[in-house]
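ugh ok so i messed up the first submission bc i forgot one of the chains. this is the corrected input, ALL of the components this time, i swear. 904 residues overall. if the numbers dont match what u have on ur side tell me asap before i send this to the collaborators (the ones from the other lab, u know who)
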Amino acid sequence: MHFDQKTFELPRNLQALMTRGRRDTAESEGLPRRSFLKLTVASGFALGAFPLGAAAQDAAAPVGLKPLQQPSAFVHIAKDGTVTVTINRLDFGQGVQTSLPMILAEELDADWSKVQSGHGSNDPAYLDPVFGFHFTGGSSSIAHSYTQYRELGARTRAMLVSAAAAQWKADPTSLRTRNGVVIGPGGKQLGYGELADAAMKLPVPEAVTLKDPKDFRLIGEATGRLDAKAKSSGRQGYGIDVRLPGMLTAVIARPPVFAAKLKSVDDSAAKAIKGVKAVLRIPLDRGGEGVAVVADGYWVAKQGRDALKLEWDSSTVEQVDSVKQLAQYRELAKKPGAHKYDADVSKLADAPHIIDAEYVFPYLAHAAMEPLNCTVSLAGDKVELWVGSQMPGLDSFAASKVLGVPPQNVQVHMQMTGGGFGRRAVPSSDFVVEACAVAKAAQTAGIAAPIRTLWSREDDMKGGYYRPMLLHSAKIGFDAQGQITAWDHVIVGQSIVGGTVFEPVMVKDGIDSTAVEGMKGPYEIPMQLAVHHPKVNVPVCWWRSVGSTHTAFVMETLVDEIARTTKQDPVAYRMKLIGDKHPRHKAALQLAVDKSGYGKKKLAAGRAWGVAVHESFDSVVAYVVEASVKDGTPTLHSATAGVHCNLVVNPKSLEAQVQGAALMGLSMCLPGAAITLKDGVVEQSNFGDFVVPRITDMPEIAVHTVPSADAPTGMGEPGLPPLAPAFANALAQLTGKPLRELPFKLA
Amino acid sequence: MSTLHINSQDRQVDADPSTPILWALRDTLGMTGTKFGCGAALCGACTVHLDGQAIRSCITPISAAEGKKITTIETMTDGSDRVGAVVHAAWVKHDVAQCGYCQSGQIMSATAFLKSLQRGKQPTAAEIDGAMAGNICRCGTYARIRAAVADAAKAMA
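and heres the new structure output, hopefully the right one now
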């Protein structure tokens, strides 16, 4: 994506806030916070940040505070005392629409029974305060907005107190707040709802004192979701449910091979279908072409799409074959690559023990339950988008390019979303750009109605932006004590961020940081790591926990194999190898060990323990699992999680995130969890041939957290990576054979 | 023009008889509680009841519903149905939903299952899993679905 640096400039006043980023993780391999800062400061890149004018109760605009520090865009208090908190993220199941309001309500001393929440937009108030652009991902919502939302709550509280003090002609410092009321001299009370209008007109205080965490009443309490009732009754609206007057629906015929062009279009049968309004030839993502059928409703549009007679020209694009691709990756792994880590690997030659391992990982679809969709309304040079987006700023910028309007004229109405797992954070804004291309072509064809572009499940499954296919090759030398003398490692896989706006900060020396994050882990080991990023005509993207989906599997199964080979307990061996520099790893692992009964409890016949520990996105998760194999079919019976994510805002939400992430980790192991290509065409199409876990696959998952009062780290993803290797390690214990491929092949 | 009997009301639907019930509900009638997930009876997100049986509305044409009673999530959880009210309460109590997109279908499968049980019978864990195995949840809420269904069964006894 191209950014016009002259047109866009990150608000300078964000910089101070951003430099206040939490724990310095500049050297961590995930999404590098400070690197984003460097990019935005050095180049003036804006990543889609521009003013739209936050709409809420009007506060007198303070000079020193930035939009994302001012309560007006985040808190609305109604006369009846109802507090509505706006979240600066997409909620697509991770629960921030409850936990962010909890953080704000804590400092506000709100009455939780009167708190509700809603989504924001692409207004600059809703930028990620650390990254400086609109973003939901990298398990960053709580980690980055914890202090921000506390301060917003504290500022609002201070304004309410000031309003009460003015009314009572009392000293504000003599007033207290509790549960949505200000309490004054003699115990007299004013509800927040009575004070809100006056309070929100007062100057916003810059400096506020935050609570001592020991005084928290809400943070740390297991709290039910604010949307639980709506989501248990069909009343929760999602992007796909948006209905606008006169709205039409578009279904797009996309090329069978990525980025192929059209040779011929016969739309006579499609146009003959009642309800079909237009058949439009449109440009698609990555230079491809497609045909959109615009109709009254999805079913008619899809009938129209199915009736198209299209010929494609796939001659100019690579037609990928997964079998050949693996052979090519194997050849590439033998060649010198870009070095992430250097080490002396000459000691491999005379090592007492050697592991020579190859790992293979397939492409993976996100397969979120809500199929991709985006609704576009054009009126003059104003554009409105209704979409569940993980990067609404970038998406609105992309929309402005397609539609030829100023970026500030694009308003994104953020929609509750049925999952995403990274698919709604595509740097090319593929599905938003497509929807805008449809709206533009429709407008040219004389259609003024808003248009919802909706993907079928098959479109979604075949539509690309997968977790990349990867090959790891490892040669490890070690002695009888498990002392590792040399580790020669190669990773082959497409770069996720190469060629995107993120490349300048996330690709260093030719290495995509998302491909190697999680390598080495907490272990002090003499590793040489070489990386190859082949260019392949398959669009790739981050998939929940990104690089750790494969690096955790490789690292944790290899470490386990060394322990098994040298007849050491896998927990004790890890504790030894971790050393003293990673106490959170040790604490999480020890907690999982203690709570599971590992080493103490006698397992049922045919079962084995499996262990893994991994840090991603600044949080550590360890699993101890129980598994068995019967007739060649592996079963995961239970998993005990030990989690270190510092302070836990909502234990209920955390448990759900870990259980869900664990199940998604398990999903990588299930036969059929693979996207493959033949003649350039994706072979899978729906849940029948791309397998995801069902209730019958769900193990017992117990979640335990290491107590901590430190500022929270994220938990949207870290529960995923260690699950599959823990399962694999248990199976290797049972079968005597290491598992080095996902999904599992036990034959 | 077809006449569909939906949630105790006769509704006129101007759509081709081959149109799936799902799209008549969602696009023609604006009843968006029933969700589109796969279009191929593989994920259960579109589950509604047809004469009390759980069916996948994404592959069932409106022609197959004429003269039959369609029940959707909207009325199942509005308090008017005893089992639906119990299941809704259990779903809220256990905080089942995450993204929530599949939960309409999950609840329609759960209510059909619980209504099919003999009065007073408590389902086994395997029976609950069997009844719910056709509904995919990508967030992984299955542990709480199990607990909510079991709880609802107890509450009905």
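quick check: The beta strands of chain B are 2-6, 9-13, 47-50, 53-56, 69-71. that seems consistent at least. Chain B touches chain A through 58 residues (CB under 8 Å).
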